[in-house]
Amino acid sequence: MLLAPKNFLTIVVCSLYGLFVGSIPGLSATLAASLLVPFTFFMDPLPALCSIVSMSAMAIFAGDIPAALIRIPGTPSSAAYTYDSYALTRQGKSQLVLGTDIMFSAVGGLMGAVVLMTSAPLLAEVAMNFSTFEYFWLAALGLSATVMVSAGSQAKGAIAMCLGLFLSTIGVDITLGYPRFTFDNVDLLNGVSFIPAMIGVFGISEIMRNVSQRQMDFAIAKVKTKGIFTGVGKLFKKYQWNMWRSGAIGTIIGVLPGAGADIAAWIAYAASKRASKEKELYGKGSIEAIVDSGTANNACLAGDWVPALVFGIPGDSITAVVIGVIFMKGLRPGPMIFEQHPEIIYGVYFAFILANLLLVPFGWLAVKASSQMLRVPKNILIPIILMFAITGAFAINNDVFDIITLGVLGIVGYFMERNGYPVAPIVLGLVLGPILEQNFMMSMIKTDWNLILFFTRPISMLLGGITVAMWGFPFLMAFLENTKKKNNGLV
Amino acid sequence: MGKKDYIGGVIFICLGIFIWVLSFQFPVLPDKHPGPSLFPRVLGTLFIFFSLIVILEGWRKSKTPPPPPAEDEGGNVIITGKENYFNPVLVIILIGAFIALARYLGFIITGGAVLFILMWKLHVKPLKSFIISAIVICFIYSVFAKILRVPLPQGFLWW
What we know:
The structure holds two protein chains of two kinds. Chain A is mainly α. Chain A has helices at 5-23, 29-40, 45-62, 64-70, 82-90, 94-127, 132-148, 154-169, 194-211, 232-238, 240-255, 261-275, 287-311, 317-328, 336-340, 342-373, 378-397, 400-418, 424-446, 458-490; strands at 171-172, 179-180. In chain B, 66% of the residues lie in helices and 0% in strands. Chain B has two domains: 2-63; 86-147, no CATH class. By secondary structure, chain B is an all-alpha fold. Chain B starts with a helix and ends in a 12-residue tail after the last helix. Chains A and B meet through helix 8, helix 9, helix 17, helix 18 and helix 19 of A and helix 1, helix 2, helix 3, helix 4 and helix 5 of B.
C-alpha cells in the first residue's frame, strides 16, 4: 500500500520538502510540519501520516548541512554538535562530517523505528486497561515534561503551557455545553482551530523573527561530494558502542512525552563527552560527538510517535501536529487505533523504515545541492512561506476567521519567543487541554467528586506520583542549591 | 531581561485575574459542584502563580551584573546587527490587508500584492519581485483552487 505510486510519490515529494526546509537555517522541522498540514487535509490518512514521517526524518538530518558548512544549525536538533561539525569542515573534513551525518542519521532513525514497532503494540495492550484517571495523569505528565524540558526558565514554559490550556477552554464547555470566553462571537463557539493556531505560533512567529534580521544571506563555499562516504565504515567499527548507546538515549528521550530531538542530541552529546577518551576535542571538532548526537536526534523521531500513537500524548511538537492530523482524519489516537486501523499503524512503521533508507541517497543529493539550497535568498523565500501559511490556514475550514487566529497567535508567539517564553508548550497545551479537562471532569462526575480515586488505582497512582514528583523537582533542586551555598558560606 | 520579565509577569497576572473574573459568569453543576468554571479558575491561579515566579526571577536577574559581550575565536567583541522593527509589523499589516481585501479583490490580486510588497520591502528589486510574485501566486492558486478544490476568495474579477 505504501509503495503504491501515489503514496510513494507523496513520500518522495515530502522528503525533498523536508530536506529543503531543514537545510535553511531559521526554518524548523516543526514549521515544515505545520505548513504541511493543510495539504494532509486533502490526503487519505496513511499518506497524510507518512508524509510527516518522511518530511521530519529528512528535515532533522538536513539541519546538519548548514551546521557543517556555515556554523548555523538548520534546525535546533543540530545545535548540540554545530561547533564540532564546523571545526572539522575548517580542517578540510567536510566530506567526512556530512557522510557521517547521513549514515548515522539513517541508522539512528532505523533503530528508533524498530523500537516503535516493538514497543508500541505492547504498550497499547497495557493502555487498553486505562480509564479516565490514567488518561488524565498521562496528559498531566506530558504537559509537565514539556515544561520541565523547556529551555531557559521553567516558569515561562509553564506560562506558555497555561496559555495553550486556556486557548483550549475557549468555546462550548464539555460538561454543560456552556460557551466560555466566546464574547458572543459565533466563530469562537467551536473553539480555537488547532491548525491555524499552530501555523501561527510556529510559522508566523518564525517569519516575523526572520524578517526582523538585517542579515538574510549566507556566504558559503562549494562542497566536494566525491567520496563522501569514505571513512564512514571505519567509524561504524570504531564507534559501534556509541551508536547503540545514542540510539537508545534518543529513543528513550523520544518516548518521554514532551521531549524532542534537540534534547536527545544534547543528552547524547553530554553522555558521549563523559565516556570519551578524547574529551578535549569536544567543541573543537570531535567526530565522535557527531556520531552520538546525529544518531540520537534521528532515533528520537520514531520514539516520539510511541506516546502519540499509544496514548494520544505528543512526544514533541512535531507529534503534536501528528495528533492534530489524526483527529482531523476522523481517527482517535490511543490503543484502539491498533485494533481498528492496523493498516495505518503498519504503514507508519514502514514509512519510518522507508524514509530512513531513502535518507542515504536523498541525503547525498541534498549535500550535493547544498551550495545551491543555501543560496536561495531568504528575502524571496519568506514571503512565499507567508503566502502558503495564509492560504493553508484558510483552506482548512474556508473561513477568514482562521487567518485572524493565525495572525493573532503569530504575534503572541513572536513576542513570547522574544522574551524567552518557549512556544511549543502552547501547542501541546492546546492539544492536551481537552483530553486533560474531559478526563478529569468525567472522573470526578463518575466518582461523585472523590479525588482520592486518582491515587488508588495502581497505574494511576504511579503516573500521578511521577507527575507530582516532576513538579516538586525544581523546588527540591533550588532548596538543595541554597543549602549547599549556605554550607559553603559557613566553611 | 529583568524589566521584560516584570512586564510579561504583569500581563499574565492580568490575564489570570481576567479569567477568574469571567469564570464567575459560568453556571455551576446541579449538585453545586463547579462545572465549566473549574478548569479556567485553576488556570487563572496557575497564571498568577507562575507570573509571580517570573517576576521574582526578573528581580534576581536585575541584581546580577550583565554578562560580558560575546567574543569570537580571535577574542574580538562580536557586534550584533540592529534589528528591523518595521518588517514584523509589516507582516501583520499584510495579513490584515489580506483578510480585509481578499473578498473584494480576489485571492490572486490580494495575494500577489502581499507577496510583492513583502519581497520589495525585503530589498528584492521591484521587477524581480513582481515577476516572482506573479508566478508564485498563480502556482499557489493552481495548487489550492484547482487541485485541492479550495474555494479561495474570488473578488469582483472572479479570480
